[in-house]
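User: Let's play a game. I give you a shape written as tokens, and you guess the letters that built it. Ready? Here's round one.
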């Protein structure tokens, strides 16, 4: 098992080295930079599984750093914003009962990014799902800190799916019964 862990970590190091070389050759490629950030994020998850806390924290910080740069360089690419918000919701392992103010700040930032994504793309279910995850993580932070009032406020910000179809009843000419006809209208963000 130990040699297998070493092989896996070595594979991540090789992937990071290859992607870094590609980025050096083509620094404007968002695709390579996203792949590198995802590689760091995946290495973070593996490091957590094997108990390598230092590498776990470093990998998370690197992933966030690359995604931050991507969203700055490509502000109109929602996939990068989504990936950043998703990664901000990850947390490095901490001792039980220890509050992580930095993590709370990152989750709040993820919520803000999700709000912007939902406002711009109200029908994308993935953005609403990530908003739910972000708010759930924020609620868990408040619950763990014993902040019942803050928890209540967080839960009141529920995310509703967009309303895309409204049924309107029109009289039927053949009988006295009314039949429904679907009338679509633009959905609006609810958060």
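Assistant: Ready! My guess for every position:
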């Amino acid at each position: 098992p130990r040699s297998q862990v070493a092989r896996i970590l070595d594979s991540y190091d090789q992937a990071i080295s290859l992607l870094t070389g590609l980025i050096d050759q083509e620094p404007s490629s968002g695709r390579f930079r996203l792949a590198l950030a995802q590689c760091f994020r995946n290495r973070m998850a593996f490091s957590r599984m094997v108990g390598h806390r230092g590498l776990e924290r470093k990998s998370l910080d690197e992933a966030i750093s690359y995604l931050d740069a991507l969203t700055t360089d490509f502000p109109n690419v929602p996939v990068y914003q989504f990936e950043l918000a998703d990664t901000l919701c990850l947390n490095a392992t901490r001792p039980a009962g220890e509050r992580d103010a930095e993590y709370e700040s990152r989750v709040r930032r993820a919520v803000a990014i999700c709000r912007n994504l939902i406002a711009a793309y109200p029908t994308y279910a993935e953005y609403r799902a990530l908003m739910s995850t972000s708010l759930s993580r924020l609620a868990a932070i408040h619950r763990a800190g014993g902040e019942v009032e803050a928890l209540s406020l967080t839960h009141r910000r529920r995310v509703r799916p967009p309303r895309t179809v409204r049924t309107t009843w029109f009289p039927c000419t053949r009988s006295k019964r009314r039949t429904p006809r679907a009338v679509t209208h633009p959905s609006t963000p609810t958060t």
